[in-house]
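fwd from M.: "can u put these together and see what the complex looks like"

so here's what she sent:
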Amino acid sequence: MLLEKTTRMNFLFDFYEALLTDKQRSYMQLYYLDDLSLGEIAESYGISRQAVYDNIRRTEAMLEEYEIKLALFHKFKKRQRVTDQLIKSLSAAQLTNEEIISLVEQLKQD
Amino acid sequence: MLLEKTTRMNFLFDFYEALLTDKQRSYMQLYYLDDLSLGEIAESYGISRQAVYDNIRRTEAMLEEYEIKLALFHKFKKRQRVTDQLIKSLSAAQLTNEEIISLVEQLKQD
């Protein structure tokens, strides 16, 4: 599994897991957080590997759909960039109060 | 309609409208944003006042369910409090850089 996709799915899961069913949440947790293989998940639930695979693929698509609609991960990254910039500049005392206020105002938006 | 409820529904609608159907979105928009009466909405859609009422009540319940699950409005208010405090203190130059950094760190959380 590509690291980039795993990281993205971990974030999307974090933001939207409350919108998933218990079963979807369980499979995603075992696959993405606990790093179990599809075969291992299938065995522990007594179902086919294909059924687990299909469920996880559908859940991934749902998470991407939610991200298109609500953009929580996107907004989170945007805020991270601004807060990181603020903290770095504040630590180096590189900003005037007016510049700091302007950045904080950006954080109020979403 | 109570002003407090209207304000809350306007916010919840703002955060979760992407998760509603087109019909739900239309009724909510006419009722809460455009301030039409249930009777006026019913007339323009050629359906009963009761049908509009039921749809809007169900949508309100859905929005509250999404808020229980995702808490976007709650987190927004929390960030607003911190950013307002930051801006007020920065304007009055009441905070040390360390205090500012600690508040910005809070904003990174959610």
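replying to her w this: The helical segments of chain B are 3-16, 22-33, 38-45, 49-70, 72-91, 97-109.
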